Task: inverse folding
C-alpha cells in the first residue's frame, strides 16, 4: 500500500489551499483529480496567469480560446492532452484547433500522429493545423491522405494544407502524379495548380493522358491556373502527343491561355493533324488568340475541310464569299464563316455587326440547307440591332419559301410581332394563318397578294395560294386578266387537293389493331359535319388491363349526313358524293362497346368488329337522287370559297 494517495481536492478546497489545488491540477495518475482541482480553483478567489499553469487550467475547463491567448506556453500541455488516451474526441478536436491557431512547430509530429485518429473531425483538424504550421515534415504524411477514394473531407483538407505549405510540397506532389491511386493523382494535380509554381508545368503533361477523366481534367485545369508563360510550352509539346484526346485538350487550353507563342504550333496542327475534331479545336484556339498569321490557314480550312457538321454545298457558297474576304483580309468575316460552318450560332451573335452580311447571305443562298438558313436567321434576330430585324422582315417577301420560313423562324426567336397591315399580311401568309387576312383592307394589301401569287411555295402549302386566289377574285378587287387566269388555275389545284383529302377521309379511317382517328383536315363551316360523318368517338378510359375501351357512335355519323342533306349548296352536294362512298370499318380491339349497333360483345379478349355505314351511304345516295343526281362539281370550290386547312 503506497504511503501517499492522490490529493484530497475537497479538503484542499475547504481550506482554501490554492497552492495545493494547483499541485493537484497537474496530477497525472487520475484525470478526475486534476479535473476536480480545476473546478475547485474556479470557485475560489484565484485568477490563472498566462503561463503553463494557466494553460493547464483552461485545458481542463475546455476554454481553447484562452489557450490560444497564452500561446507557446500552452503548447506542451496541449500536446500532452492530444496524446492522452483518455481524452475524448471533443477534447482532442479542441486541442487540435488550438494548436492550429498557435502554429508552433513542436506540434507537427503529434499532429501527424492524429492524422489517423478514429474520429474524422480530429483527422481533418490535424490536416488543417499542419497546413497552418507549414512544416515540411508534414508533406509526405499529408500526401498519403490524398489517396482516400471513399471520402473527400480529409483528402480535401490535406490538399488545402499542402497548398498552404507551398514550395516544399512541389517535388513530392510531382511524384504523386504517378501514384497508383487516381484520387492521389487528381488531388496532386489540383494542388500543383493552386500552388501555381512554373516548375511543375512540365510534369503536368503526363497526367493529361491519364485514363481517368478526373485526373486529366484536373491536370488541364492546373496548367490553366499556372498559365502563361510556363504552361504554353508544355501544352505545345502535348499537341504532338500520341493520344488524340490529349492533343485536343492541349489545343483548347492554348486557346484559353491566349499566348501568341502557340500560334505556329496550332497552325501546324491545322495543316498536318488527321483527326478532324483535333483540327477543329486548333482552329477555335487560333480564333481565340486572334493573331492574323492564322488568317490564311483558316481560309484554307474553310475551302478544303469538311467536318461532319458541314454540308455538301459549303465549298461552293464559301468559295464565292472568300474571294472578297481574301482581298480585304477581314479577320472577323473569316471567323464568322468558321462559326457558321460548325453551326455555332451563339458565337455569330457574339461577333455582332461583322456577322450580319454573312448571315444574310446564308439565309438567301439557294444551296444552303434549311437548318442552316434557320440558324443564320435566328442569329440575325439575336444580334440585337434594328437593322437585323428589318433584314428579316424584308426576307419574309422573298420568292424562295425556304428563305421566308427561315426569316419567320428568326423573327420568332426574338418574339417579333407585325404592326402595319402590310407586315401583318406578309407574316400571316408566310405563317399560313390565312383566315386572319379577312380582317384587313384587301385593297391595301392587293399588291402584296398579287406578288405572293408568284412566290415559290413549300410542301403542303398549296392552300395558301388557294386562299390568296380566292381573295383576289372578290368583286371589289380589280386585277388584270392574267392575274384572274392565274387565280382560276390555283383554285382548280385547290379543288383537286380538297377532293383527294376527302377521299382519304372516307376510305382510309381504321386499320388493324385499335383505332386511327383522322384529325388532318378541318373545313371551316363544314368542319363539324365532316368530322362527325367520317369518324367516331374513342373513349379516353382504359379497361384496367392495359386495353382500351372504345365507343363507335355510328348514329352520330348518320345524323351528320342527314344534317348535310338540309344544306342546299354545291359544296354540300360534293360532300354527299363523298359520303355515298363511306367505307365500312373493321376494328380489332380488346374491350369495346358499340352502343348503336346490333353487335355488342362483352368480356375480355380480342375481336374483329365490322362497323357498317350502309345507312349513311343510303341517305347520301337518296338525297343525290332527289337533287337529280348532279355531277361532282370542282367549280363549287371557286364559287363558295376556298377552304382552309390549318397548319399542324
Result:
Amino acid at each position: 500500500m503506497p504511503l501517499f494517495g492522490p490529493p484530497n481536492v475537497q479538503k484542499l478546497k475547504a481550506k482554501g489551499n490554492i497552492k495545493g489545488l494547483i499541485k493537484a491540477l497537474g496530477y497525472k495518475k487520475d484525470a478526475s483529480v486534476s479535473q476536480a482541482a480545476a473546478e475547485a480553483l474556479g470557485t475560489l478567489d484565484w485568477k490563472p496567469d498566462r503561463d503553463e499553469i494557466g494553460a493547464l487550467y483552461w485545458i481542463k475547463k475546455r476554454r481553447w480560446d484562452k489557450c490560444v491567448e497564452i500561446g507557446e506556453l500552452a503548447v506542451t500541455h496541449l500536446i500532452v492532452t492530444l496524446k492522452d488516451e483518455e481524452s475524448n474526441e471533443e477534447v482532442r478536436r479542441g486541442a487540435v484547433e488550438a494548436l492550429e491557431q498557435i502554429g508552433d512547430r513542436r506540434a507537427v509530429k503529434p499532429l501527424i500522429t492524429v492524422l489517423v485518429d478514429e474520429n474524422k473531425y480530429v483527422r481533418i483538424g490535424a490536416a488543417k493545423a499542419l497546413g497552418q504550421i507549414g512544416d515540411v515534415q508534414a508533406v509526405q504524411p499529408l500526401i498519403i491522405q490524398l489517396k482516400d477514394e471513399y471520402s473527400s473531407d480529409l483528402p480535401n483538407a490535406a490538399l488545402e494544407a499542402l497548398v498552404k505549405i507551398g514550395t516544399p510540397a512541389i517535388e513530392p506532389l510531382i511524384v504523386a502524379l504517378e501514384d497508383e491511386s487516381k484520387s492521389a493523382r487528381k488531388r496532386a494535380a489540383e494542388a500543383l495548380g493552386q500552388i501555381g509554381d512554373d516548375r511543375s508545368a512540365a510534369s503536368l503533361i503526363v497526367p493529361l493522358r491519364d485514363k481517368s477523366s478526373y485526373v486529366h481534367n484536373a491536370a488541364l485545369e492546373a496548367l490553366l491556373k499556372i498559365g502563361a508563360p510556363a504552361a504554353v510550352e508544355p501544352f505545345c509539346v502535348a499537341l504532338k502527343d500520341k493520344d488524340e484526346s490529349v492533343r485536343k485538350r492541349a489545343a483548347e487550353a492554348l486557346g484559353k491561355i491566349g499566348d501568341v507563342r502557340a500560334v505556329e504550333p496550332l497552325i501546324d496542327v491545322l495543316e498536318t493533324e488527321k483527326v478532324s475534331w483535333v483540327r477543329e479545336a486548333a482552329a477555335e484556339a487560333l480564333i481565340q488568340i486572334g493573331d492574323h498569321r492564322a488568317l490564311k490557314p483558316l481560309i484554307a480550312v474553310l475551302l478544303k475541310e469538311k467536318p461532319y457538321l458541314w454540308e455538301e454545298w459549303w465549298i461552293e457558297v464559301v468559295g464565292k464569299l472568300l474571294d472578297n474576304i481574301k482581298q480585304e483580309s477581314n479577320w472577323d468575316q473569316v471567323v464568322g464563316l468558321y462559326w457558321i460552318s460548325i453551326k455555332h450560332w451563339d458565337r455569330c451573335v457574339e461577333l455582332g455587326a461583322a456577322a450580319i452580311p454573312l448571315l444574310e447571305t446564308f439565309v438567301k443562298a439557294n444551296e444552303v440547307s434549311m437548318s442552316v438558313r434557320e440558324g443564320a436567321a435566328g442569329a440575325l434576330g439575336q444580334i440585337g440591332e434594328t437593322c437585323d430585324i428589318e433584314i428579316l422582315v424584308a426576307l419574309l417577301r422573298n420568292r424562295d419559301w425556304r428563305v421566308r420560313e427561315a426569316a419567320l423562324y428568326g423573327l420568332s426567336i426574338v418574339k417579333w410581332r407585325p404592326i402595319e397591315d402590310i407586315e401583318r399580311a406578309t407574316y400571316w401568309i408566310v405563317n399560313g394563318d390565312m383566315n386572319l387576312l379577312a380582317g384587313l383592307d384587301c385593297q391595301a394589301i392587293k399588291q402584296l397578294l398579287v406578288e405572293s401569287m408568284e412566290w415559290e411555295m413549300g410542301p403542303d402549302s398549296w392552300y395558301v395560294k388557294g386562299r390568296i386566289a380566292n381573295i383576289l377574285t372578290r368583286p371589289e378587287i380589280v386585277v388584270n386578266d392574267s392575274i384572274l387566269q392565274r387565280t382560276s388555275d390555283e383554285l382548280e389545284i385547290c379543288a383537286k387537293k380538297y377532293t383527294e383529302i376527302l377521299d382519304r377521309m372516307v376510305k382510309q379511317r381504321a386499320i388493324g389493331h385499335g383505332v386511327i382517328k383522322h384529325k388532318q383536315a378541318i373545313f371551316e363551316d363544314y368542319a363539324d359535319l365532316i368530322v362527325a360523318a367520317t369518324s367516331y368517338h374513342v373513349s379516353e378510359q382504359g379497361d384496367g388491363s392495359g386495353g382500351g375501351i372504345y365507343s363507335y357512335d355510328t348514329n352520330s355519323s348518320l345524323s351528320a349526313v342527314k344534317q348535310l342533306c338540309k344544306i342546299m349548296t354545291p359544296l354540300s352536294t360534293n360532300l354527299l358524293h363523298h359520303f355515298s362512298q363511306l367505307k365500312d370499318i373493321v376494328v380489332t380491339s380488346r374491350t369495346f362497346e358499340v352502343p348503336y349497333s346490333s353487335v355488342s360483345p362483352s368480356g375480355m379478349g380480342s375481336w374483329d368488329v365490322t362497323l357498317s355505314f350502309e345507312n349513311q351511304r343510303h341517305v347520301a345516295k337518296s338525297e343525290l337522287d332527289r337533287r337529280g343526281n348532279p355531277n361532282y362539281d370542282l367549280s363549287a370550290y371557286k364559287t363558295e370559297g376556298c377552304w382552309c386547312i390549318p397548319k399542324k
Observations:
- The mean pLDDT is 80.
